[in-house]
Design brief:
GO terms for molecular function: DNA binding. Keywords: Membrane, Transmembrane, Transmembrane helix. This protein has helices at about 5-15, 20-25, 30-40, 50-60, 65-70, 85-95, 100-160; strands at about 190-195, 200-205, 210-215, 220-225, 230-240, 245-250, 255-260, 265-270, 270-275, 285-290. By secondary structure, the chain is an alpha+beta fold. Strand 1 (about 190-195) and strand 2 form a beta hairpin. Helix 4 (about 50-60) packs across helix 5. The two termini are about 50 Å apart.
Length: about 290
């Protein structure tokens, strides 16, 4: 048993929790919890799960996971650090681009800027020509309007002479104007407030509900809790077994989401897909905070 595993086990026993009870709280299988206590990291389902499982274990027994990682960083093999998949993904993405493709991508922004400038010049020229044509036609239109006004006036005078002495019908009451339609409710907004490293903060506005849905495209580990620490779920998702989880946080003001493997994880807020501010290829493990502005 490692020193880190011994600390976690003692904290669990101090809270009077068995491995079965801890499994129910963290949603981590009992054999993985036992492996953490014994320091047997080779039995974990994937390299990125080691830190995620230890962090979830520590939070469940009331310990600070970041402090544990710093104090016992030599006990966790470097091959299980989440930076390894990140480095591999960067190497693969760089190798996948051929030299010809890279040149095309470098030239594309310049081409788009040139097309935009040409379009802007053409639009300005069109507006100038149209404005000049409207100014030339304006005097003719003014004369026609005068003629149209005089003819009804003369007609009204003649009809007044013929109908002298007769009672005029009272004018009909005008129908009240229809009430203006109420403005439409603005669409939901889910925007990035800030991001740093693997941490991103979003703001959710213009909605009266807050439902978070997590979908696995392969195999990942995700936890969701509110701002007060209440855990809605924290478990492994696998498309061959359990592909999604949903949490209703309408009565909360904040959601804290920890994603173990972002490339295989999709997050939806009220059926709107959350776009990662940090590319999953650059940060496989991400911490996401969503502030609900009611």
């Amino acid at each position: 048993m490692t020193e880190l595993g011994n600390i976690l086990k003692e904290a669990r026993e101090a809270k009077g929790l068995s491995l079965d009870e801890l499994q129910s709280i963290t949603k981590i299988q009992k054999r993985y919890l036992l492996g953490i206590e014994e320091g047997n990291y080779s039995m974990m389902p994937g390299k990125f799960y080691v830190r995620a499982f230890i962090k979830q274990y520590a939070e469940a027994v009331g310990l600070d996971p970041e402090q544990l990682f710093e104090q016992h960083k030599n006990e966790i093999p470097s091959t299980y650090n989440e930076e390894l998949p990140e480095q591999l993904s960067r190497v693969q993405s760089r190798r996948s681009l051929s030299p010809d493709t890279s040149k095309v991508l470098d030239f594309l922004p310049k081409l788009l800027i040139a097309l935009f400038m040409i379009g802007a010049i053409a639009l300005i020229w069109y507006l100038i020509v149209k404005s000049a044509g409207d100014d030339a036609e304006q005097p003719a239109n003014t004369d026609k309007s005068k003629t149209n006004i005089e003819e009804p006036q003369n007609f009204a005078d003649d009809s007044g002479d013929e109908g002298a002495g007769e009672e005029e019908d009272p004018p009909e009451e005008e129908e009240p104007a229809e009430e203006e339609a109420e403005p439409e409710t603005p669409a939901q907004e889910l925007t990035v407030a800030s991001n740093s490293g693997s941490n991103t903060v979003y703001e959710l506005k213009n909605t009266d509900k807050f439902v978070v849905k997590v979908v696995s495209l392969g195999r990942t580990w995700v936890s969701v809790k509110n701002g007060t620490g209440k855990i809605y779920f924290g478990e492994e998702l696998n498309k061959d077994a359990k592909v999604s989880q949903t949490a209703d946080l309408t009565n909360d003001t904040q959601a804290l989401i920890k994603v173990g493997f972002a490339p295989d994880t999709e997050i939806y807020v009220n059926d709107q897909k959350l776009e990662y501010a940090i590319s999953p290829a650059d940060a496989t493990t991400q911490n996401i905070t969503i502030n609900f502005v009611k």
